[in-house]
C-alpha cells in the first residue's frame, strides 16, 4: 500500500529549505513523462483507477483511493522493455491514450518517507509526501511530516485530473 | 508480418530427419508456457485476436489472421520484467486468464525460415513453419518448404483453440 498526500505550494524554496532543516536528504531531480490511458469498457474517472506508461519504461496500474483524506491506493508496476510497443498493444486492446502529464520532480528522503517537489506546466508547484508500507503507521508518518512542513490543505486529485479540469479534455498532444 | 503455417505430424523423427537432409540447422529445444487472457469487453474467439504472457517474460498481442489458408497475422511483443505483476495488472483491468498452453519446442533454421517441431500434451506433435518479412515472398518460402517436407493438410487453429476443442473450456488450471 502506498500512502500519499499532496498539497499545492506557492514557494518551493521555502519548503525545500525546511526539508533540509529537518534532515531530509536530496536524492535527485528527474523529469517524468506519463501517458495515461482510458479503458475500453470502464470509465476510469468513475472507478477512480488509472493506467499509465512512465518514461516509456514502466507500466503502472493504480487502484481506487482507499480512504477519504489521502491519495492512498494500490499500485502495481511492471518494468517494460519498450514503451512504444506496450502502447501499440494497449491501443490494439482498445485502450485510448488520453493525456500526457510531464513534470520535473525533485526527490527527498527522510526516514521511510519520500517527498517529491513537483513542477508542472499550467499547474505550478506541488509537494507529494509518500510512504510505502503498513497503512496506519505510514499514514501517521506522512501527516506528521506534513505538519512539520506546515501544510494544511491536501489535494486528492491526480495531476491528470487537475490538468483536465484546467484545460478541458486534452487534445492535440500528438498521442 | 509473420507468415506461418502449421501441420499435424505423426512421426516427428521423420520430419526432423528430412529437415536435416535439407540443410536445416538445429537451434535448440525449449519449453514454452503461455497464459492466454480473455478481453473484458471483446470476444477474442470472434475477433480472432489473442493476448498472452509467454514464460513470464513476454507479453504478446496477436491480431486477426489476414488470409484464408495460413496463420499469418500481426504480432506485437514486449519484454516484461515480471510476469506475475503483468498478470496482476491485466486482471485488475478485467482480463481473465483462460488457459495455459505448454509445449516442448525443437527449433530449426533453414535460410530465413524457422521450423518448430512442437509436442503438446493431449494434442500430440505438430510442425510450424514461419517466416517474418514481406508477405508474398515469406508466403512462398513457407509453402515451398512445406512441399519439400511433404506436408499437405494445414491447420489454422491455434493450440489454444485446439485444446479448448479437445477438452472443453479449461478449468482447474490454477490460473
TrEMBL record, chains A, B:
Species this chain originates from: Candidatus Aciduliprofundum boonei
Q: In this protein, which residues make up the domain named CYTH?
A: 1-165
Q: Which Gene3D superfamilies match?
A: Hypothetical Protein Pfu-838710-001 (2.40.320.10)
Q: Which PANTHER family match?
A: CYTH DOMAIN-CONTAINING PROTEIN, SI:CH211-156B7.4
Against PROSITE patterns, the record matches this protein to: CYTH
UniProt xrefs under Pfam families: CYTH
The gene name on file is cyaB
Protein name per Swiss-Prot or TrEMBL: Class IV adenylate cyclase
Q: Which SMART domains match?
A: CYTH
Amino acid at each position: 500500500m502506498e500512502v500519499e498526500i499532496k498539497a499545492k505550494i506557492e514557494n518551493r524554496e521555502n519548503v525545500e529549505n525546511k526539508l533540509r532543516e529537518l534532515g531530509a536528504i536530496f536524492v535527485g531531480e528527474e523529469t517524468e513523462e506519463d501517458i495515461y490511458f482510458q479503458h475500453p469498457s470502464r470509465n476510469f474517472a468513475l472507478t477512480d483507477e488509472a493506467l499509465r506508461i512512465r518514461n516509456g519504461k514502466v507500466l503502472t496500474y493504480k487502484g481506487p483511493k482507499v480512504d477519504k483524506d489521502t491519495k492512498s491506493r494500490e499500485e502495481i508496476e511492471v518494468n517494460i522493455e519498450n514503451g512504444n510497443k506496450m502502447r501499440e498493444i494497449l491501443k490494439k486492446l482498445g485502450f485510448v491514450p488520453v493525456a500526457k502529464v510531464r513534470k520535473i520532480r525533485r526527490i527527498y528522503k527522510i526516514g521511510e518517507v519520500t517527498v517529491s517537489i513537483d513542477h508542472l506546466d499550467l499547474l505550478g508547484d506541488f509537494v507529494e509526501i509518500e510512504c510505502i508500507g503498513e497503512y496506519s503507521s505510514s499514514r501517521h508518518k506522512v501527516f506528521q511530516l506534513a505538519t512539520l512542513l506546515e501544510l494544511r490543505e491536501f489535494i486528492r486529485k491526480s495531476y491528470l485530473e487537475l490538468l483536465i479540469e484546467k484545460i478541458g479534455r486534452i487534445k492535440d498532444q500528438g498521442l
